[in-house]
Amino acid sequence: MSDMAPGPDSKAGDGKQTTTAAKSFISGGFGGVSAVLVGHPFDLTKVRLQTAPAGTYSGAMDVVRKTLARDGVKGLYRGMGPPLVGVTPIFALSFWAYDLGKKIVYSATPDRVSPKLSTGELAFAGFFSAVPTTLVAAPAERIKVVLQVQGQGGKAQYSGPISVVRGLYAEGGLRSIFRGTGATLARDGPGSAAYFVAYEQAKRALTPAGADPSQLNLGPVIIAGGLAGVAMWSFAIPPDVIKSRLQSAPQGMYSGFFDCARKTIVQDGVKALFKGFGPAMARAFPANAATFLGVEASLKAMDKLF
């Protein structure tokens, strides 16, 4: 996924590092599954901190302690079904769209001297990757959040993802299922720009002089992937808080993204926009290291097979 040197799937002779659509799609799916398996307990902790009434939890470890006491270890994986099912198309779309974004840059700059993309060009491709991805990610996030926040007190309303879909559709049709789409893009657009820029720049920095970044062993890939996740969540937490509150709130509580942001600040102060920062950052490195490990390992395997 580096843009530094031509790989086996690049256009012959042009030196532009772009991967075939099929390989981008498949490798992104492998990366996404890896991310969910590693990161879901951190994500559940983050969402519960972001959405619970003030005073429910004293911090991230209190969320973990109470969740384990109430539901056991399986409670930390509540709501994992939707992202695990949806993660293959979500991450596959993300990595496919990122590669497409790079191709758009190359098409728009036919007379460029170097195939090496600038930071701004990488940021464009990263932001672009979030646009089609949001169409799949938003409803999956909505279902996941609804499942994650239930069970904190009293009987769970929904038995699983299908039950949530039916309930949300009965509540407000497709509009209810897609609630939080704008907030998802507000989080994932800047976040994805930071994500891919950090990954590419970290790979460049970790590549020995005269070596090819595409040939890095898995150690530097893990480090670069982890740093990419940290960079992404450094930008994404405030819109993620709004997204979580929008998607978990009762029907009619908020009229939209800005109404939710305003009411959150009025009620809990600006600091509320950074709730869940700790677990998000704790999750960022291992989950995204796993993501890029899955992506790069699957790409290498596919390159050997075909």
Automatic annotation (TrEMBL):
Belongs to the mitochondrial carrier (TC 2.A.29) family. GO terms for biological process: carnitine transmembrane transport; mitochondrial transport. Keywords: Membrane, Mitochondrion, Repeat, Transmembrane, Transmembrane helix, Transport. The keyword Metal-binding does not apply. This is Uncharacterized protein. Solcar repeats lie at residues 19-104, 117-205, 216-301. It holds the Pfam family Mito_carr. It comes from the Eukaryota. It is a multi-pass membrane protein. One of its GO terms (molecular function) is O-acyl-L-carnitine transmembrane transporter activity. GO terms for cellular component: mitochondrial membrane. It is found in: Mitochondrion membrane.
